[in-house]
């Protein structure tokens, strides 16, 4: 269409409707993003309050995750050690029972 031609009223109306729908969709998306941002800020604030209440300084949070991983590994190792010790204690008890029976 050249600049000298007048646009069709129906075409203009369709284009305006499409533009209104696009703007409406953008407004809805912006509202959703604002809600998500507000929820994230709220969660972040609660987490910060929890860290402060627990006596954790802001820079220590990452250190805590590493320490938790280390403690979890140590705990697993200690469980294995205890299981082996129980097995040894059971064998020793069995031997003692046999020795008592033999001496009787």
Low-pLDDT regions? none
Label the overall shape: elongated
User: From N to C, what is the helix and strand string?
Assistant: HH
Largest sheet, in brief, is: none
Number of strands: 0
Alpha-carbon Rg, integer:
36 Å
The DSSP helix count reads 2
Strand content: under 5%
Describe this structure in words.
The chain has helices at residues 9-53, 61-103. With 104 residues, the chain is mostly helical. It has two domains: 1-55; 59-104. The longest helix has 45 residues, at 9-53. It is elongated and about 120 Å long. The termini are far apart. The model has no long low-confidence stretch (mean pLDDT 87).
List descriptors:
104 residues, mainly alpha, 2 domains
Could you provide a short overview of the structure?
This protein has two helices and no strands. It has helices at about 10-55, 60-104. It starts with 8 loop residues before the first helix and ends with a helix.
How does the SSE layout of this entry go?
Blueprint: H1 9-53, H2 61-103
